[in-house]
Amino acid sequence: MAIVLKSRREIDMMRAAGKLAHDIIVKMAALVRPGVSTLEIDELAEEELVKAHAIGLSKNYPTYKPGEGFPASTCISVNEEVVHGIPSKERILKEGDIVTLDITPRMNGYCADTAITLPVGTVKPQMQKLIDVTKETLEIALRHIKPEKRWSEIARLMQYNVEKNGFSVVREFVGHGVGHSIHEDPKVPNFVTSEPVRGDFILRPGMTLAVEPMVVAGRRDVQLLDDGWTVITEDKQPAAHFEHTIAVTASGVDVLTDGREPWAL
Ligand code: MF3
Ligand code: CO
Ligand code: CO
Prior knowledge:
The chain contains four helices and 17 strands.
């Protein structure tokens, strides 16, 4: 595992990509309402990416099948879809759904990765709670990140918050380093296991990480749909997902996808 630390300049470049990611997700979120297709939301994101001379790194993301990368600029996942939902004109949002928007722009050679889950109109209290707990779990992680701590300390706090609320953490997908490419070392899990922690790492200033709890209302088991991408919960219970790209600083964390202007430091 080779974790590459980023310079102040590189982090500023990532913040510019992060600002774009934030701004696009805000525009996508404004489209979320009953009757809208997930493809319409993706197309808006694609237009904004083109305007900014950026690309969405989901597009053509390679799979094990040669020549069959992910087909869209963003991932949009509805209800029991956990991650990597394919935007589609057939998938029409309806009142009571929850929808996750996940975007990873690369601009001027630097990447940022961010996701949010939103209710479509009014949702069942249990689904709203799932959204709130997942968002809070990300916030807990960000509050506790400090240089010289082990990542597993943070992961334990995240898992604890999810499970004390009666929900489960997905194990098959985890956060990751991010910077020059979308997925860099290290792996950034949202859980710990009872085995001696493998792949644990110590937080250091200059690390840039995508922290992204994926939380499900029911059992944590997931399966892949026949489309080769969409990951759903086996029990078809809903899932939520929040993600920020952060830089570890000397004193804690600098969130690069919170919409702050790159120069407002
Ligand atoms: N944005 C996703 C992440 O959080 C990755 C998207 S790549 C795709 O890591 F191909 F799966 F879409
Ligand atoms: Co993402
Ligand atoms: Co990510």
